[in-house]
Amino acid sequence: MIHADVLGERARLSPGKTALVFVPTGERFTFAQLNARAERAAVFLRERLGLAKGDRIGLLAHNRVEYVDLFFAAAKTGVLLVPLGTRLTPHELAFIAGDAGLSALVYGGEFGEIVSALRAETEIPLGIALDAPAASGDLPWADELAGLAGSSEAPFERTRCDGEDLHALLYTSGTTGKPKGVMVPHRMTAWNGWNTALCWGLTESDVSPVFTPLYHAGGLGAFFVPVLAAGGTIVLHAGFDPAEIWETVARERCTVVLGVPTIWKMLLEHPSFAAADLSSLRWLISGGAPLPLYLIDAYQERGIAFKQGYGLTEVGVNCFAMSVEESVAKKGSIGRPLMMTDARLVDEAGLEVPVGEVGELCLRGPHVSKGYWRNLAATAAVLDDDGYFHTGDLARRDEDGFFTIAGRRKDMLISGGVNVYPAEIEGELLLHPAVQDAAVAGVPDPTWGEVGVAFVVLRPGESLTKEELLAFAVTRLARYKLPREVVFVEALPRTAYGKVVKGELRERFLAERAGG
User: Fold this and answer.
1) 47 and 162: one domain?
2) With the CA atoms of 288, 291, 297 and 300 taken in that order, what torsion angle do they form, in degrees rounded to the nearest 10?
3) 53 and 171 in one domain?
4) With a cut of 50, which residues of the chain have pLDDT below it?
5) What pLDDT sits at residue 153?
6) I need a surface site. Which of 123, 369, 492, 495 has the fewest CB within 10 A?
């Protein structure tokens, strides 16, 4: 029987092995200790809160050990965990709480005011405070769980959950329209853990820091579950602190590290990077957004293998793999599909495109979600009759079977009847030494239909003109790909996981053009 309780399964095999190190407190937990915590949390959900299989419980907190407890307590009970974004407003949270139909909300003390404002917009039947309660009727987590210690001599029994039963609802960032709850079944959590560990070569000797937010699929699925499945050790940070991360990599002898391009850029540029002890690292990997090649080059100059991965909340965050040698030979590629993963590239008619041509990436396999919560229309729009999920990402496949992302389908612009892929242009603009960040978006044009606009952030102390940047780019890109406009901005708007919100840039540009 496939289920999501990877921790419980691993605790039987490696009870005395260190599973988790919590950086803020220095606490260390073996698999047996961590599993015992999750079992106690599961008893709390079932017996104290009265939650049953299929009920939904929200979690609003920064990374902490209780996040791990609840993630696996949900796997043990059949209760659906609904992680909530820590950057969302009470209004945004109210939509998710209502859409998910939360029976209870667990929250960290730093979110007390947010929870109070949330309750003014929607009903939260029951609140559980990890720290100081926001309201007098809320239950204190620590006291409640302490009261359960030793309350039963009987061994814990997991609620039976089959592979297709839901484990969690992970809400998308909502960069267009309202957020949608991705239905994550038990087999998706389990398969992601096992298959990633196997195909990426993770072992019980691996140690990985997790500093990306656990409310996001990348935080939970990219290394957290796979490393635990392999019997390795997770080093959990409360948040992102470059100096702390490089120090922890050295102290804990971390071997594999995941980040998004924005994070890798910040870690590279932090003063502590130059002297950081990187001798324990086997390789680094980036995901979540296209990775500029200059970042790969910069880390490889320090002798570190740097890979690029690919995934989506809806299809699992690990869908491709490559070896260390291939990460050099196929720099910029996301690799080949993992085992039991079917990948197709199709045109607008749904026909597969030839090798070397761009098509929409479609994925099928046990790592794919069941679609969107209470949204049949949105599910039908992305899951076809053959079980393929249409990702909306454009990619090429070479003659060796390696895939390279060309950009988002909705980002692709057609200029003069020719397809132009912003990710390709962005990668070249970022090679200019004065450019710190860049994004390209298409805007309407009366002559060409669409043209590209480059939004560029300069490095501190640097100066650059539009003409200088385009003179640099024209040596690297065909003229039809060149942006027609260059807008210098202080920063690019991004989601919590590093993706540029191009719609905001586009709307800002069009409004200024109309007004000016």
Assistant:
1) yes
2) 20
3) yes
4) 175-176
5) 66
6) 123
